[in-house]
Amino acid sequence: MTYCVGLLLNDGMVCLSDTRTNAGLDNIATYRKMFHFEEPGERIITIMTAGSLSVTQTTIARLREAVEDPDATPETSILMAPTLLKVASIIGDTLSSVRQDVNEKLEASQTSASASMIVAGQRKGGTMRLFLIYPEGNFIEATEDTPFLQIGEHKYGKPILDRVVKPTTSIQDAEKAVLLSMDSTLRSNLSVGMPLDLCVIERDACRVSRTRRIEAGDPAFRAMSEAWSQALREGFQQIVL
Fold it and tell me: Is the preceding omega at residue 135 within 30 degrees of 0, hence cis?
């Protein structure tokens, strides 16, 4: 399992993913789940993945192959697509095709594989957009009413986002919100694990403005987690029935 979250704000977008992949209690590994396709100043597309590693890795590989193809067209390459809506459509079609291919190979063993993705991006002259791509290839888009999207083990980290995140939330507060959302998930589900990958895409920058890899034992993350736990305990004690 995994946990990835993306925020769409007035000032930019914030994305966070874990890196744990497990196929059983004795088979735990670390794989990056955040990928960037970028033409700095012209276009930025960030993809986060959850689900079957074979499906997600093959999908990302096919998307990169299409970008690097000398005969690429706006119908095949996400770096040439005329809109972010078309980008989401290309990624959705690729994900759906890969999932079907993998499941055909797994049919004899009566098992199946699935995956979902979050796509954040902006092209020069366009607006920032954030999509959740489902395994079947269809997708939904973040809105002002729901300015964040999650995939993977999302239930533990959702309450703080519901209470705190609005389009007007600052980038600094948004980073804090996604990290506390991840902290809640790490505490409640062992299938989500560090290191973490954080990225910030500032509005109209059309590039990754800042990235951060947070390793296990990171002192700043640990201090934030402890401060949040203390604040919750103090708040709990102050509530009178």
Answer: no
Angle between the N-to-C axes of helices 219-238 and 171-188, in degrees from 0 to 180, rounded to the nearest 10: 80
Q: What 3 state SS string does 80-118 have?
A: CCCCHHHHHHHHHHHHHHHHHHHHHHHHHHCCCCCEEEE
208-239 burial, b for 16+ CB within 10 Å, e for fewer? beeeeebeeebeebeeebeebeeeeeeeeeee
Is residue 135 very low, low, confident or very high in pLDDT (cuts 50, 70, 90)?
A: very high
The token pair that represents 56 in the structure block:
């997600």
Domain residue extents for the chain: 3-238
Yes or no: say if 196 and 8 are a contact pair by the CB < 8 Å rule: no
pLDDT tens-digit series, residues 172-229: 999 999 999 999 999 998 778 899 999 999 999 999 999 999 999 999 999 999 999 9
| Structure tokens given for 64 | 């990169």
Superfamily for domain range 3-238: Aminohydrolase, N-terminal nucleophile (Ntn) domain (3.60.20.10)
Tokens of 236: 């709990």
Pairwise CA distance, residues 80 & 64, whole Å:
12
For residue 52 the two structure tokens come to 């079957």
pLDDT at 189 (0 to 100): 86
Q: What is the pLDDT of residue 22?
A: 64
SS3 183: helix
Is the overall model pTM greater than 0.85, yes or no? Answer: yes
* Statement: residue 97 has pLDDT above 60: yes
